[in-house]
Each structure stands twice: as C-alpha cells, then as structure tokens.
Design brief:
The protein is α/β, with parallel strands linked by helices. The chain has five helices and four strands; from the N terminus they run ββαβαααβα. Helices cover 40% and strands 12% of the residues.
C-alpha cells in the first residue's frame, strides 16, 4: 500500500467523449447504460454488484441536495457487505499495478456513486491520508 497507490483510480462517465484509454475500465453501474453499445463503452469488467442498492439509488434519484446522505449510506453498504468488500479488494489490487477507471452512466460528474466509490477505495488503499 504505497503512498501513490491512490493515484491509479479515476471515475469517468461512459458518455464522455474521452477516447484516451489506459488500464482497466470497470463499469460500476447496476444497469447497462442506455444507448451505449458494449463496443463503444470499451468495458473490461462489469461489477454491477458493487453499485448502490436499488433502494438507495431510487431514494437518491441524482438529487444533489441528497448527495451527502447518499454518500454516507453508500459507504455503509460498501463497508458492511462481504460481496462488495471482495469486489473492492479486487479493484484495489488491480489499482496497485495499473490505472483503474470506474465507469458510470450518470450525467453529473460530481454527485454520483462512482465518485463516492473512488474516494472510498482511495481511503482503503492509503488509510493514512483519510482525514
């Protein structure tokens, strides 16, 4: 767990026009993004089980005023679910050797679960930097 490990995890929308591809791309949405072909998405793995629960996702409904509570609840789901913890461990292990891009379909680049997941994973990779 080197100090620079956290630099290898980024979040990116699948609707972004970014054609620069490095490392492993993991779709972290429970549902496949509408209107995006598998070829266009260029996804290496689909980890739908690491996404927020359907109940939490429905409650959040991409409303920025709910983001803080959503983030806290999602982090609790990540920390308490053995399946999600196992997937998180796999992402962290991959990120130690190459860039991992967490791909999501939300239009808001700030208020979405991939950002919460990225930050939570960074803290797992390097607990000394968490505040």
């Amino acid at each position: 767990m080197g100090i620079n490990s956290f630099l290898f995890i980024v979040a990116e929308s699948c609707i972004s026009s970014n054609s620069f591809r490095v490392g492993v791309r993991i779709l972290v949405d429970r549902l496949w993004p509408r209107g995006v072909s598998k070829d266009a998405a260029s996804i290496d793995e689909w980890m739908k089980e690491i996404a927020p629960s359907p109940e939490l996702r429905t409650w959040f409904s991409h409303r920025p005023e709910r983001f803080e509570e959503f983030a806290s609840s999602y982090e609790r789901e990540l920390s308490e679910d053995p399946l999600r913890l196992g997937l998180a461990d796999r992402i962290c292990e991959t990120a130690r050797g190459q860039t991992v891009t967490l791909v999501y379909a939300a239009k808001d680049p700030v208020h979405n679960h991939a950002v919460v997941l990225r930050d939570w994973l960074k803290r797992r990779l390097n607990p000394k930097t968490s505040g």
